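**Protein of interest**
===
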Amino acid sequence: MEDKNIAVGLDIGTTKIVAMIGRRNEYGKLEIIGAGKAKSIGVKRGIVTNITQTIQSIQQAIDEAEATSGYKITDVSVGIAGQHIRSLHHSDYITREDAESVIDIDDIDALTSQVHKLGMMPGEEIIHVIPQDYKVDSEPNITEPIGMYGGRLEANFHVVVGQVASIRNIGRCITSAGFKLSNITLEPLASADAVLSDEEKEAGVALIDIGGGTTDLAIFKDGIIRHTAVIPFGGNVITDDVKEGCSIIEKQAELLKVKFGSAWPAENKDSEIVSIPGLRGRDPKEITLKNLSKIIHARITEIIEQVFQEIKKYGYDTKRGKLIAGIVLTGGGSQIKHLKQLVEYITGMDTRIGYPNEHLAGDSDEQLSSPIYATSVGLLMSGLQTLKQSQQYSQDKQEDVVLEEAKDPKTKDSKTSSEVKKQVKRRGVFERWTDKLKDFLENAE
């Protein structure tokens, strides 16, 4: 079955790989028509460590999504995360040749392209260049400079950087599995799209996505991403600690953590005991829930304190950087009992658990509105946005042809000329983005 309004989000995580197929309904909500999940074996802390196993897991997740939807997948929108991701702040400027003309999208594009040429450490590549605010001549804190007059255009940028090899490995897994890469997004940004409201992004909010291998942070203020960070610890290290501390196997440790674990040891009484079946004829092992919670509490506290250091680095306690909407927790790790209370205790900030259900159609499977699927929903939204831009680009191309054919040099008015110019510009920006993606794919082979 083919449908030009359908996109696919592919979340390559440390514990699971999820493929989600969907489209927008008439109300603009996400209609999930198929989803597939596979155990992730070849990924550690967000980085592909075994190409063959990752390809198999991707194919398994996509096969399941295709079977439930009846739709044949050709291209996917994928997320990147991992401990190799870092961010930095950078200011840059351009001097415009004609200060008497208004600033247009070409000037913004020239300034952004200049940032893409920044010298990085060996093996690193710029993934995202996100403008924070602009300065035109001596006028600071401008959010939209297009249409203004000025000779010098300056901007502050949030630059996200990652290891080329790690990004290419993800590209290689997808192309080797037989799919095209339609879009690449930083996973914290995808999760943010899925669980944060525009009001929260405006007021100031820190999104903490606790995954299996990493914990991702994204801070928004005034509707703009201000800070991103990846902490190389997630739910898996908690499971490892439970496994070691209780001398049990990993499968049992994960089950214990999910079913009986709590981030607040005081909640459990000493008399609360859970019995674990012994290995091959051995006696069952008895574990007190208080001890279990103490182990979980110690490691989750460590993770949250590291994230809080990053929030402090951003400057949340300054007047300009205040995060009025506090913290939103999402990802599989956010489901540990009493985590919200622990985060509020450590940070002193209002906290809620983020569910992606706000963007989902009313009749969606309840399971898909779990924080576990926040990144997958965000990547699907990103894929649909890319699809919309691509369709807009094709439409503009056709309109350009019509306008060019209709244009008569004797009667052409300034309006028609500016329409042609505007569309050529829009097309230019999109073409450059597409070319960059093609280069990436060629390098991924």
Notes: The chain has eleven helices and 18 strands. Residues 374-406 form the longest helix (33 residues). The chain has a mean pLDDT of 86.
